[in-house]
Amino acid sequence: MKKHFLPLMASGIALPWLAQTAWAQNDATDTPERSKTLGVVTVNGGQPSSLPTQIPTTIEGITREEIETRINATDSEDALKYMPSLLVRKRYIGDYNHAILSTRASGTGNSARSAVYADGILLSNYLGNGIANGSNYAPRWGLVTPEEIERVDVMYGPFSAAYPGNSAGAVVDYVTRMPDKLEAHVAAGYSSQPNHLYGSSQTFNSWNSSASIGSRSGDWSFWINVNHTDSQGQPLTFATATQASGKPGSAGIPVSGAIPGLNTTNLPWYILGAGTQYRTQQDHAKIKLAYDITPTLRASYTLGWWQNSSKGRPQSYLRGPDGQPVYSGPINIDGKSYTLSPTAFGLSNDDQTHTMHGVSVKSHTQGRFDWELSASLYDYGRDQQRVPTVAMPAAALGGSGTLQDQGGTGWNTLAAKGTWRPQGLQGAHIVDFGLGRDAYKLNISKYNVQGDWLSGPANLQSLVSQVGGRSETSYLWAQDSWRLAPQWKAVLGLRWEDWSASQGRTATAGSQLAYDRRSEAHFSPKAALAYQLSRDTTLKASIGRAVRFPTVGELYGATTGGALSFINNPYLKPEQSWTSELSAEKDLGNGLLRATLFHETTKDALYSQLIPGTTTSAVQNVDKVRTTGLELAYAAQSVGIRGLDLGASLTYADSRIVANAANPASVGKWQPRVPRWRATAYATYQPSDRWAFTVAARYSGRQYSNLDNSDVNAGTYMGASKYFTVDLRARYQIDKQLSAAFGIDNANNYQYWNFHPYPQRTYSASLRWDM
């Protein structure tokens, strides 16, 4: 580990400040959209963005050109790959249900502690948090494709009053293409991953194709993008049996092929086979329309459509005396008998069609007052999962099973925003304010299937389980960016939120429960202060409170795993966090550096943990979690050699559970999935206008998945391990319109885990035509 990590660590320590790539406001002289600024920066750039006018804290950004040059991007979340302190738990190309964003003080089990937007439309799924109910609550990354990204902005921490308490970790805003003239793009990509793990050895390939066209004519402009992905991922789950659970004797079919090992608590076990090897086929289509009602007033509409079809299939390592695979029933391994359940090697068929709508009317006078009205809708038009209840190999051909349906699930938002500049652009104050409402509806119904699980309809008279409910948050906010003096700027903000949860219900074939409506209201103050210490150095301090309300899934749908078990707590308290940071930024002429000291204290953190005295988990409040850390990074262009761009970041986080009456054994232990150390580094060399070569690396230290840190063996299935990976990319501009790229992700073929195994060495190639 040290030989991999020390070079990255040394590069970070040598840099006293982190580079911040900022977005500067365009003015009448047509200043370049991307430029270096210090202090509290302004975001405008002539394109729609959910980010408020004044950003009172650390932001990072990456442009379309940098993504194309630097990153082997097969999904939109790949744009975040080398951002400081960020990690997306992407397990394979097209990962639609587990790709959760991790931030400075939040792990990959906390999807509800970050906010992801596309052109101001909410992509974060606040119906739940993490993975539960046999469902998923990862951001809806599939509604954005890499080819349509114009830029990505990331704001760290809950320091803007414009965002809900879910912004405790970070706010990510994707800005997609909206052309000023006719343009068209066609791209095709291929990836190949030779994978060898336990008893599985196979190469998994993926294909991707996309096309887009856009233009502007008079007051109208449009953008159309379509994308198709066909992906084979590596096995993600494994059937296991602890050796201690075997009974000595000769009972059961003698089998070979079981692989001995140690589980996360170092108990001996057998790996019996692989599961959840997905064949994923996805289609994406998006239409964006904009109309300039006046030179300073624009109306826009976005329609996004996403379709997914995935099949998860198993592989047994066990072979009987006749050489045939064994999937269920009594077996015997080395003189001990075990019993495999009929679903030990499970299959699944997923079928989803989701749609997204967004509409806005926005003024951009850059005078004393600008405003925006916006609304969005995300609809689970079709969302079904079919699972057999009979054993393999018969299950592959049909038989009994269940159908889980999430029809009727979704969310909608409505917002009004304004910006007031009392004395125009050069005034001492810029006041941002707004109000709105966000509403969420969850409905998960699981039925036995009539006839064949592969195609039979749900038997509505044979309910297995059902959960559902609604939540709604109404809010008001305002923040004032005040230039106290030429060297000083303060940003003061306040957010008020009124939250309610209602219509909560759980049901099985023999019982029904309904929960009372509940509501709470909270204020969240924000403050930031920036001081221009010298021409090239700025100091900033920020503090903010965030209240993250329980999701419908946490209130009414908490489970012990894939099966719904209705172990709920409809009276969960909201998380309440205070986050602060102190930053120093320095302009190096050809780059920027920044150092940020951050601290977060969260009371009543929402985590799934064991109920005392049982082996069952449920979502509960953890009394207090505290995180203190330091983030360093650097980014510069043409360093020493013309065409050489460098970037690096280093993050240290001491994140511990301070108090937890429900589980005293967890007190003093590390917060799950938040590593103590993480780092990134990249170098891009462009020797000419045609060629670009990039080498990049990522490192993460030891992590834990359990609150009590009992998972001491991280390098195995269900573990959360350290990793060090190196990525390579070469891009060649063949002519003015045609370009090609070749890349290798995880070139050093590091085997690492985040419960599921991450991809091994993956080769990619792409061809792109631009007009």
From TrEMBL:
Classification via PROSITE patterns: TONB_DEPENDENT_REC_3
Annotated signal peptide: 1-24
Keyword list, A-Z: Cell outer membrane, Ion transport, Membrane, Receptor, Signal, TonB box, Transmembrane, Transmembrane beta strand, Transport
Its membrane topology: Multi-pass membrane protein
Species for this entry: Comamonas guangdongensis
CDD domains assigned to the protein according to its UniProt record, in alphabetical order: ligand_gated_channel (cd01347)
This protein's name: TonB-dependent receptor
Residues in TonB-dependent receptor-like beta-barrel domain copies: 316-746
Gene3D superfamilies assigned: TonB-dependent receptor, beta-barrel domain (2.40.170.20), TonB-dependent receptor, plug domain (2.170.130.10)
SUPFAM superfamilies the record matches: Porins
Localization: Cell outer membrane
Domain TonB-dependent receptor plug: from-to ranges: 54-171
Family: Belongs to the TonB-dependent receptor family.
InterPro entries (alphabetical): Beta-barrel_TonB, Beta-barrel_TonB_sf, Plug_dom, Plug_dom_sf, TonB-dep_rcpt-like
